[in-house]
């Protein structure tokens, strides 16, 4: 039987908090927004210095209709998770990596950014203020969504004169409606996610808007999501709408190299390290779409999707199935277990990746 950790036995010994949110059913969590108590907010004007951030009640924000983010898409986001352990402590996973990625993206988008220390501090504050919304162990996690946007008014195309940084959170379960079952992908031929020299390698909001059309069409045909090819050769794998992709052949795991058109996923980077530690050879390189035919397994990685096994990929009308027991490949299963047990505090964190609150 497939041994995913989510249904961990740890739940039975967990004592719910007195102030657990009314009406929440931890067993029903998917990846939809659940409004929580507080969000973090800070602003920065032309001088590049952010004001002292504060926690404010979660709610709508006021924006000028001519805000840079609304008119010209000057915005970035991040995603990370907090897990509650069976000892009722809270673990963040590599938050400084999200901070560094936002700094890199802000440079590309002509925006000021918080320092790594300020970012991590803001994440900690927001998580602690919303502690009661962190699901019990084995039931999910608290998804943390930092946003950086040009909130100042512009009319002509230019960087905004003011920026707002916000963090909001939501308890989440599995990302795909398939839950932990394998997902079915469609290789996209007409649309591309990114071009060389563009912004594919940063977490700008526009990258996600641009995939919606192909993703909706694929979902309407019953697929879980779309796998993109590079826009120059139309031949090399890039990524899925919301996650990175890996293929497995024997003891070798390959994933598209980071070259400006691929999002440098933190889960991607972590899985590469975990796999190498477990004796796999991991190659970051051009991965041709033809290699899908020959692969033993394919899986996706991302903060939201964690490690998702792929059950089939359809390319030019041909469906390529991937096997394993219940369709779940053993390599994906092993890497999922190793990563999540570390993130949930079930095994010792020898990598030094978790931050305890
Ligand atoms: C994440 O995995 O955290 C992301 O930012 C992807 C998003 C589409 C949910």
Cα(first) to Cα(last) distance is 34 Å
Mean pLDDT: 93
Estimated share of beta-strand residues? 25-35%
Overall outline: globular
Number of strands: 17
Q: Which spans have pLDDT < 50 for at least 5 consecutive residues?
A: 1-16
Number of continuous helical runs: 7
Largest sheet: 9 strands, mixed
Supply Rg: 20 Å
Bound molecules: 2-OXO-4-methylpentanoic acid
> Helix/strand-derived class?
alpha+beta
SSE string: EEHEEEHHEEEHHEEEEHEEEEHE
Proportion of residues in helical segments: 10-25%
EC number: 2.6.1.42
GO biological process, one term: amino acid biosynthetic process
Pfam families: Aminotran_4
GO molecular function, one term: L-leucine-2-oxoglutarate transaminase activity
List keywords for this structure.
transferase; alpha+beta; 7 helices; binds 2-OXO-4-methylpentanoic acid; L-isoleucine-2-oxoglutarate transaminase activity; 20% helix; BCAT-like_C; 17 strands; disordered N terminus; eight-stranded antiparallel sheet
Care to describe what's here?
There is one protein chain. The chain has 357 residues and is of the alpha+beta class. Helix content is 20%, strand content 27%. The longest helix has 14 residues. It is globular. The N terminus is likely disordered. 2-OXO-4-methylpentanoic acid binds next to loops.
Short description:
The chain is built from seven helices and 17 strands. It is of the alpha+beta class and about 350 residues long. A hairpin with an 8-residue loop joins strand 1 and strand 2.
